[in-house]
Write a structure and sequence with these properties.
Layout: E1 2-8, H1 13-23, E2 30-37, H2 43-50, E3 55-57, H3 66-79, E4 84-87, H4 96-101, E5 106-110, H5 125-134, E6 138-145, E7 155-162, H6 169-193
Parallel strand pairs: 1-2, 1-4, 2-3, 4-5
Antiparallel strand pairs: 5-6, 6-7
Helix pairs in contact: 1-6, 5-6
Length: 203
């Protein structure tokens, strides 16, 4: 049984997609053992509570220094003893020690086809704004392992999404979530849980 901790900053739509996929059997051999948010007001915490999943807020605002926050976040993750950490819209730079402690056991969902519109400064709506400004016809989402860089780890899955005439960043964001993110993130977790993707990074 793969024990998973999900880290999320906002509404938790990707978390909901994971929970739904566990419920309907799209994800097997997996238990969501905890949810961590850096935002006390995140609706994701309510989604977790509704499923009786332990959920905690570990916010940088509650710590005097970034180092203290990093220590608290790392301790919070370790407390759940996860096999896999899923960053599902977690808008915090995770500490290098966490990448080291969970080497090849952290995955992230990014709302573009990496290497396009990724790296420093590309998160949330900014990704979709960048895609529309550039005039691309196709965008999408990527699930990848997390390494020391930003959006640089080995790619597990990508799914393309059409950019349509008249799209706004919000409209495009929603389509990318519905057609790509909510599809490939549960699939990646299921494949890892069932040995189809080696956690050692051999994607």
């Amino acid at each position: 049984m793969l024990k998973v901790v999900v880290c999320v900053s906002g509404g938790g739509t990707n978390l909901q997609a994971i929970l739904d996929a566990v419920d309907n059997g799209q994800i097997t051999n997996t238990e969501i053992v905890g949810v961590i948010s850096n935002n006390a007001g995140a609706y994701a915490l309510e989604r977790a509570a509704a499923k009786n999943i332990p959920a905690v807020c570990i916010s940088p605002k509650d710590y005097e220094t970034r180092e203290l926050f990093n220590e608290a976040l790392l301790a919070g993750v370790h407390k759940f003893e996860p096999d896999l950490v899923v960053l599902a819209g977690f808008l915090v730079n995770i500490p290098p020690q966490m990448v080291s402690d969970f080497k090849n056991r952290i995955i992230n969902i990014h709302p573009s086809l990496i290497p396009s519109f990724c790296g420093k400064g590309f998160y949330g709506l900014k990704v979709h704004e960048g895609a529309l400004e550039r005039g691309v016809k196709v965008t999408g989402a990527t699930v990848h392992f997390v390494d020391d860089g930003t959006d640089t780890g080995p790619i597990i899955f990508q799914k393309a999404v059409e950019v349509k005439e008249g799209d706004t960043p919000k409209v495009l964001q929603q389509r990318v979530m519905e057609e790509a993110e909510w599809v490939i993130l549960p699939k990646a977790i299921n494949d890892i849980a069932n040995g189809k993707v080696k956690i050692g990074g051999n994607v």
